[in-house]
Amino acid sequence: MTYQVHPVTADRWPDLEALFGPQGAYSGCWCMHWRLMRPQFKELGEEGRKAALRHLTHTDPAPGVLAYQDGAPVGWCSIGPREAFAALEASRTLKRVDDQPVWSIVCYYVAETARRSGVMAALLRGAVEYARQQGAGIVEGYPIDLPTLLSKGKKLTGFLSFVGIASAYREAGFVEVGHASETQLIMRCIIDQLELQRD
After folding, report:
1. Is the CB of residue 128 less than 8 Å from the CB of residue 194?
2. What is the per-residue pLDDT across 122-150, written as a single tens digit (0 to 9) for each?
3. pLDDT value, residue 188
4. Cα–Cα distance between 80 and 7 in angstroms, integer?
5. C-beta neighbour count of 71 within 10 angstroms
6. Which position has the higher pLDDT, 41 or 194?
7. For residues 124 and 133, what is the distance between their CA atoms, to the nearest angstrom?
8. How far apart are CA 24 and CA 117, in angstroms?
């Protein structure tokens, strides 16, 4: 499949809203789980979280990227400077690896009709490219290591898969730099090194 990936600027809000649907992607989250501390997340409610995400589409940098197939939105990836994600910064399990400035990929959402067709991989590549255009040097993600998960007798649920799958990160040139848990990794790519690999 061929996908086009674009930053979610204000003019693309209707596409993001359509992709997320009335449930706001995951249970009314509107992809604000990592951007807000828990009390604020709960206080805003679904409509408040939706409004907050819409507001972010009017800011620079954009809050993420959308993948399109034949002009229709089929996937979303949330990416930005790590400090834009208040709950991530406060996380005990996803602590900073070091003091280097990084951009973080925290969430994916793929339309049910487009799952298992390479959308996440296209979003990952598009997110890294957008970060590069914005001057980022390092991109970090927090994917699930699927073989380890399965070896422990667990299933990959929608709730777990929203952070991505480690194998896709490896294929995109990311390397493991830490563990959040037995099954969740911290992975990074240094953009300049990716450019050298492509050359």
Report:
1. yes
2. 999 999 999 999 999 999 999 988 767 66
3. 97
4. 11
5. 7
6. 41
7. 14
8. 22
Beta bridge partners of 179: 185
Contact 68, 104 (CB under 8 A): no
Angle, to 10 degrees, between the axis of helix 13-20 and the axis of helix 38-56? Answer: 130
Percentage of the chain exceeding pLDDT 70? 90
| Helix ranges (DSSP H) in the chain | 13-20, 38-56, 86-90, 119-133, 146-151, 158-161, 166-171, 191-198
Q: Residue with structure tokens 């209707």?
A: 14
123, amino acid identity: L
Contact 118, 84 (CB under 8 A): no
Tokens (6 digits) for 70: 């034949």
- Strands 175-179, 185-190: parallel, antiparallel or unpaired by DSSP? antiparallel
Q: pLDDT (tens digit, 9 = 90+) per residue, 71-130?
A: 999 999 999 999 999 999 999 999 999 999 999 999 999 998 888 889 999 999 999 999
Asked whether the beta carbons of 104 and 94 are under 8 A apart, the reply is no
- Looking at the DSSP bridge assignments, the partners of residue 140 are 104, 188
The pLDDT value given to residue 142:
96
The pLDDT score that the predictor gives to residue 162 is 87
